[in-house]
Write a structure and sequence with these properties.
The complex is a heterodimer of chains A (96) and B (388). Chain A folds into two domains: 1-30, no CATH class; 32-96, 2-Layer Sandwich (Alpha-Beta Plaits), CATH 3.30.70. Chain A has two helices and five strands; from the N terminus they run E-E-H-E-E-H-E. Chain A has helices spanning 51-55, 80-84; strands at 21-22, 37-41, 61-64, 67-70, 90-94. In chain A, the strands form two sheets. A two-stranded antiparallel sheet of chain A has the order 2-5. Chain A has a two-stranded antiparallel ribbon with strand order 3-4. The model of chain A has no long low-confidence stretch (mean pLDDT 89). The longest helix of chain B is centred in the middle third of the chain and has 33 residues, at 213-245. Chain B folds into two domains: 2-245, 3-Layer(aba) Sandwich (Rossmann fold); 253-380, Rossmann fold (3-Layer(aba) Sandwich). Chain B has helices at residues 8-19, 33-44, 58-69, 81-86, 88-96, 121-124, 139-153, 183-189, 213-245, 272-284, 302-309, 329-340, 361-371; strands at residues 2-7, 23-26, 51-54, 75-79, 102-107, 132-135, 162-167, 175-180, 206-207, 253-256, 263-268, 289-294, 296-298, 314-319, 347-351, 378-380. Chain B is globular, with a radius of gyration of 20 Å. With 388 residues, chain B is an alpha/beta fold. The chains are: A alpha+beta (96), B alpha/beta (388). Chains A and B meet through strand 1 of A and strand 9 and helix 9 of B. Strand 1 (21-22) of chain A pairs antiparallel with strand 9 of chain B, so a sheet runs across the interface.
Chain lengths: 96, 388
């Protein structure tokens, strides 16, 4: 995943791929608009067990060194990661 | 080049063998069965090196071909009638994914009433799926089309799946002497499929993705351009084919005395043979009639139709199809070509051959006679027009 590609929005026809195939991360439509609460990770409590990574139904949690990172462009705020975390490292906070 | 006595189905299978597909996935259905039966024999006796995958349905047959194409393999499938309709969902996937799969469709009636005989309602009802659509007249053209189809479909500017249509039974099951090219010659004509549109561990990609409202139109426009550009690829393929095999085809249409004709029948598929003979009889009597055979419904031969219609007094469109509640779809398409060219001449629709009903020479003559009235009507051969 190359997050920088997300901001590369094609403006001309020649920038649109000829096939329905392209490098991952390109032509992304961000999809998190209906999230009411967001998971926030306490990195001091996170032990990197990856239960949240395994259970996230939208695949928005990725490994970063020994911890995890959340992709808020796609997180829908379901809270499954918080439920799965045995170390109380994830809190759900109300979106403002 | 060897001469063989082959049916349309067999001729197509011989052409496909020459094209060396790497994956064949198919489900049998009358009257397509023999083309895949023949290909499975070829794989069995190792005269064709391909994976032959027996699937459980037509939906799976095309899905499987899409999967094969998505890893860069040359893929083939074949079907007919209800089988084609069953794989309809996958047709748009193959086209939108720009996977240059080749499919032979044995044109057959659609249910109900249940009927296994030939008409063109199956493929014509799926004109809008994004596939190139070709219609063969005889077994030789079937073989040649099978070989040329991959050249056209895989052309860099095209990247579009190709549906080659053979009239069920009348063409798929009748035998003709067919020239079968040598494999060495065929290899000169058609190179192995090379594409970037595939799953490749060295160059990871997101394949067959979704695209939201912002860019969706652009993708569909490019898909449209792919088919439009097939016209050039068809010319290129036929030119090269003639250089190697010595048979020249004529692009999107084939004109038989149509260029100076007063009255023209436009039709497609195997019935063109009978129309050609009828044209000969009229020409012997000194009457200027002609035939324009549509070889490709997509891309549609707008210019070619306008060019012959320009000097005509009336044209008749003979087709084995009805778009219920309106008229034959070929007729609709032809009328659009006339309108875009600013031509206002009488054009009539003759719907015949449904469910395999024979179209007689007498009926072809009656079409030419009707055209002399220079009216625009829609009628069913053997029945007549709509409700009085």
């Amino acid at each position: 995943m190359k997050p920088y590609l997300r901001d590369k929005v094609p403006t001309t026809l020649s920038e649109i791929p000829d096939h329905t195939a392209y490098e991952a991360g390109y032509l992304v439509t961000k999809n998190a608009g209906w999230r009411n609460i967001r998971p926030v990770i306490n990195l001091e409590k996170c032990v990197g067990c990856l239960q949240c990574y395994l259970y996230c139904p939208d695949g928005v949690i990725s490994k970063e060194e020994n911890k995890v990172r959340l992709d808020y462009d796609f997180c829908k705020g379901c809270g499954i990661c918080k439920k799965m975390c045995h170390f109380d490292a994830i809190q759900m906070e109300v979106e403002k | 080049m060897a001469k063989e006595f082959l049916s349309g189905n067999e001729a197509f299978a011989y052409g496909i063998r020459l094209a060396r597909p790497q994956v064949i996935s198919a489900y049998p259905i009358t009257p397509q069965t023999i083309v895949v039966e023949k290909l499975s024999e070829m794989v069995e006796d190792s005269s064709l090196q391909a994976e032959f995958i027996h699937v459980e349905s037509e939906h799976s047959a095309l899905s499987c071909a899409i999967g094969a194409s998505a890893v860069g393999a040359r893929a083939f499938t074949a079907t007919s009638s209800q089988g084609l309709l069953y794989m309809a969902e996958c047709l748009t996937y193959a086209a939108g994914g720009r996977f240059p799969i080749v499919m032979m469709n044995a044109n057959r009636s659609t249910a109900l009433p249940w009927n296994i005989y030939g008409d063109q309602r199956d493929s014509l009802s799926l004109l809008d799926c994004g596939w190139i659509q070709a219609y063969a007249e005889n077994a030789q053209e079937s073989l040649d089309l099978a070989l040329m189809s991959y050249y056209i479909a895989e052309h860099k500017k095209v990247s579009t799946p190709f549906m080659a249509n053979l009239d069920g039974f009348v063409l798929t099951h009748t035998y003709e002497v067919v020239e079968v090219p040598e494999a060495k010659q065929a290899d000169l004509f058609l190179k192995p499929y090379v594409t970037e549109n595939k799953l490749d561990l060295s160059y990871p990609k997101n394949l067959a993705f979704s695209v939201g409202p912002d860019h969706n139109t652009a993708f569909k426009f490019k898909e449209h351009l792919g088919i439009l550009r097939a016209k050039e690829a068809i010319d290129e393929a036929e030119h090269k084919f003639n250089e190697i095999f010595g048979r020249q085809y004529t692009g999107l249409t084939e004109s038989y005395h149509a260029d100076d004709a007063d009255y023209i029948i436009i039709t497609l598929g195997s019935i063109a043979g009978l129309v050609r003979e009828t044209v000969d009889k009229y020409r012997e009597k000194g009457e200027k009639v002609g035939l324009l055979r549509i070889r490709y419904m997509r891309p549609f031969p707008n210019e070619e139709i306008a060019a012959v219609a320009r000097n005509a007094k009336a044209i008749g469109i003979l087709e084995k199809d009805i778009s219920f509640g309106n008229e034959g779809t070929v007729y609709t398409n032809v009328n659009s070509a006339l309108q875009k060219a600013g031509l206002s001449i009488p054009s009539s629709n003759f719907i015949g051959g449904l469910g395999g009903r024979n179209i007689s020479e007498h009926e072809i003559e009656s079409i030419f006679e009707e055209l002399k009235n220079e009216k625009s009507t829609v009628s069913f051969l053997g029945i007549g027009g709509g409700e009085e």
